[in-house]
């Protein structure tokens, strides 16, 4: 029972034990049913639903007459006596389903317009309408449960961190533009016209400075802002549980994080067995075709290049003869029974992942083989392929021919596509680390190296020599936390040596002046005894989405934006007055 409210109980609380008690409930009228002179109302609050009944013969019929006037979504307060539901009227689906409350008195607290959609878990409207009336959408039990789960998990991780001597420190939202790979949101300064703050893409540099400051174990539930073209499941602002530690190495950070995460998950009833599996970046790419594998799906990638070295099929033999080219394959069990037309459509799917075409072999249930390419293969090649791919009737083997990364990515994409198409079960959760990402990738548009994680990441110790000679071969002290095939978090060790940080920025295309201008404060700090440090950030929205079993992070955010970055409820972003612009020294083009 809560206190300091207008009610004695919540709408989710009453049980058989309460029979005979006088209670007062508050909530919204959910469903109202008139039944042979009796009125039944399902009264809903955030905690649950209780059936309350109004009888014209009871208490002079006054409450009954008021009940005749109330409508859906009106907030009311009712007082009455808890009684057992008549035999056969119990509702086992409802926690309060054994009882009802016979009402003596009702107070109407407000009326409501008819909502634009029904407040039901079963959705009967477009997401835009839900977002426009989000305050009504939140009344749906499912949204409410999602927000509650998010609150519980956030509290759990705070407790887990606090219990391990991590200190929560707030860092500013108005800060300096410090690139981390995305575009900054800018905030014009009124007092210094022509100057801008940037909203942090993450508190990365600030947490490093906290380590220089001796905080040693830091965390923050931090809002991060990235002005990117929004893909389906991105938001311009999102929340990270941001963490940093000093006087640690990579293993220390990962072990500590495993304990923190296992503890936090356990507090919301999810078991995360530790130690977590660690998969090297290139092993993840080669085996699952992605750096965020869902290992529950099976369907691993196989390198079959050598099988076809002498093949009459020129495409495969050509790849085998070319340095850096690969023939790789996956086996989608069950899809070998698909009709030809359905299999043919997979080429378009593969094209979406960068393939020029899709070679395939369908092993039919009756033992026959259907494929546009098998006529080129010798018996030995087929036998070797069957053995390598563990072929059974009903299998569909698909191939990618490309350089290592592209072949991996094509089949990685096909693997998830086929798992979805074949309804491969995903039971429980899948947790793992992917470690040792490359330090750089080559940005073809910008014609320069880009930091794979961010410019402050420590290279793998043994690769320091390679950094200048062969940058793409250099690894980094990094780790991503992968949950159910999503990148749920990531982090790494940081450079704590000022000269190494300057060298890194130069390699990334900054001149010394640029580096000074943008990151001077970091470089200064690194010169004052910066300790070895490393950390991590957990994508809170994504983790909550997975815990809630939802497909979109919008389902676990109270007020998310659309994919074009709008808030449909308030109509943000919106125009501002000429006066406001003038005050910050701006004129529109
Ligand atoms: N700041 C990083 C990010 O937002 C996480 C980290 O390395 O701690 O991805």
**Could you give the order of strands across the largest sheet?**
6-9-10-22-21-20-17-11
**Fraction of residues in H or I helices:** 25-40%
Structural class: alpha+beta
For the secondary structure, the number of strands is 22
Sheet having the most strands: 8 strands, mixed
Helix tally equals 17
Distinct small-molecule ligands in the complex: aspartic acid
What value does the average pLDDT take? 95
Which word captures the global form? globular
Give the terminus-to-terminus CA distance.
Answer: 59 Å
How big a fraction of the residues is strand?
A: 15-25%
Radius of gyration over C-alpha positions, nearest whole angstrom: 30 Å
| Poorly predicted ranges | none
SSE blueprint:
Elements (H helix, E strand, L loop, with lengths): L21 E14 L2 E8 L2 E7 L7 H6 L7 E10 L14 E10 L18 H6 L1 H4 L3 H22 L4 E2 L16 E4 L7 E4 L4 H9 L4 E9 L11 E10 L3 H18 L9 E4 H8 L13 E2 L10 H7 L4 E9 L6 H5 L1 H7 L6 E5 L5 E2 L8 H11 L5 E9 H18 L9 E5 L4 E4 L4 E4 L14 H4 L8 E6 L2 E8 L4 H10 L4 H15 L6 E7 H9 L29 H6 L6
Parallel strand pairs: 3-5, 6-9, 11-17
Antiparallel strand pairs: 1-2, 1-4, 2-3, 4-5, 7-8, 9-10, 10-22, 12-13, 13-16, 14-15, 14-16, 17-20, 18-19, 20-21, 21-22
Helix pairs in contact: 4-6, 4-16, 7-12, 10-12, 14-15
Bound molecules: aspartic acid.
Give an account of the 3D structure:
With 589 residues, this protein is α+β, with helices and mostly antiparallel strands. Helices cover 28% and strands 24% of the residues. It has helices at 62-67, 127-132, 134-137, 141-162, 204-212, 250-267, 281-288, 314-320, 340-344, 346-352, 379-389, 404-421, 466-469, 498-507, 512-526, 540-548, 578-583; strands at residues 22-35, 38-45, 48-54, 75-84, 99-108, 167-168, 185-188, 196-199, 217-225, 237-246, 277-280, 302-303, 325-333, 359-363, 369-370, 395-403, 431-435, 440-443, 448-451, 478-483, 486-493, 533-539. An eight-stranded mixed sheet has the order 6-9-10-22-21-20-17-11, with helices on both faces. It has a five-stranded mixed β-barrel with strand order 1-2-3-5-4. Helix 4 crosses helix 6, helix 4 packs across helix 16 (540-548) and helix 14 (498-507) packs antiparallel against helix 15 (512-526). The longest helix is centred in the first third of the chain and has 22 residues, at 141-162. The chain starts with 21 loop residues before the first strand and ends in a 6-residue tail after the last helix. The model has no long low-confidence stretch (mean pLDDT 95). Residues 202, 204, 490-492, 535-537 line the site of aspartic acid (ASP).
């Amino acid at each position: 029972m809560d206190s300091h409210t207008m009610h004695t109980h919540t709408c989710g609380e009453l049980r058989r034990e309460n029979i005979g008690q006088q209670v007062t409930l508050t909530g919204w009228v959910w469903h109202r049913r008139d039944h042979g002179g009796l009125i039944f109302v399902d009264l809903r609050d955030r905690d649950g639903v209780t059936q309350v009944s109004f009888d014209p013969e009871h208490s002079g019929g006054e409450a009954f007459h008021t009940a005749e006037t109330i409508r859906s979504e009106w907030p009311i307060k009712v007082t009455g006596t808890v009684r057992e539901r008549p035999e056969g009227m119990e509702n086992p689906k409802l926690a309060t389903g054994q009882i009802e409350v016979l009402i003596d008195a009702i107070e109407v607290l407000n009326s409501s317009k008819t909502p634009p959609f029904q407040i039901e878990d079963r959705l009967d409207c477009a997401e835009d309408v839900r977002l426009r009336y989000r305050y009504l959408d939140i009344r749906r039990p499912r949204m409410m449960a999602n927000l509650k789960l998010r609150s519980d998990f956030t509290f759990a991780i705070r407790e887990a961190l606090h219990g391990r001597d991590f200190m929560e420190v707030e860092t500013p939202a108005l800060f300096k533009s410090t690139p981390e790979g995305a575009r900054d949101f800018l905030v014009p300064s009124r007092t210094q016209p022509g100057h801008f703050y940037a909203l942090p893409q993450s508190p990365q540099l600030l947490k490093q400075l906290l380590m220089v400051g001796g905080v040693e174990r830091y965390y923050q539930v931090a809002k991060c802002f990235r002005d990117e073209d929004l893909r389906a499941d991105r938001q311009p602002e999102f929340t990270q549980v941001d963490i940093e530690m000093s006087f640690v190495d990579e293993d220390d950070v990962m072990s500590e994080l495993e304990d923190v995460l296992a503890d936090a998950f356990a507090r919301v009833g999810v078991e995360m067995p530790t130690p977590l599996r660690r998969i090297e970046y290139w092993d993840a790419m080669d085996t699952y075709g992605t750096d965020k594998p869902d290992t529950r799906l099976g369907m691993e990638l196989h390198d079959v290049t050598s099988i076809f070295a002498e093949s009459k099929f020129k495409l495969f033999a050509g790849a085998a003869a070319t340095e850096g080219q690969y023939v790789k394959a996956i086996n989608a069990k069950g899809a070998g029974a698909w009709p030809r037309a359905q299999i043919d459509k997979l080429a378009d799917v593969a094209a979406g992942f960068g393939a020029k075409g899709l070679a395939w072999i369908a092993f039919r249930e009756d033992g026959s083989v259907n494929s546009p390419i098998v006529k080129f293969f010798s018996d030995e090649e087929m036998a070797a392929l069957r053995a390598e791919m563990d072929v059974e009737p009903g299998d569909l083997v698909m191939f990618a021919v490309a350089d290592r990364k592209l072949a991996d990515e094509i089949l990685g994409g096909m693997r998830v596509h086929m798992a979805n198409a074949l309804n491969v079960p995903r039971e429980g959760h899948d947790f793992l680390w992917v470690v040792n990402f490359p330090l750089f990738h080559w940005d073809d548009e910008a014609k320069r190296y880009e930091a794979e994680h961010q410019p402050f990441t420590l290279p793998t110790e043994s690769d320091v020599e390679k950094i200048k000679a062969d940058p793409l071969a250099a690894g980094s002290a990094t780790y991503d936390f992968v949950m159910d095939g999503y990148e749920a978090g990531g982090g790494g060790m940081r450079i704590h040596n000022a000269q190494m940080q300057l060298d890194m920025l130069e390699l990334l295309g900054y001149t010394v002046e640029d580096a000074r201008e943008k990151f001077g404060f970091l470089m200064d700090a690194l010169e004052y005894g910066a300790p070895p440090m490393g950390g991590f950030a957990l994508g809170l929205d994504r983790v909550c989405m997975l815990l809630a079993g939802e497909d979109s992070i919008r389902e676990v955010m109270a007020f998310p934006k659309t994919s074009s970055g709008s808030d449909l409820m308030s109509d943000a972003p919106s125009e501002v007055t000429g006066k406001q612009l003038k005050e910050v020294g701006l004129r529109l083009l």
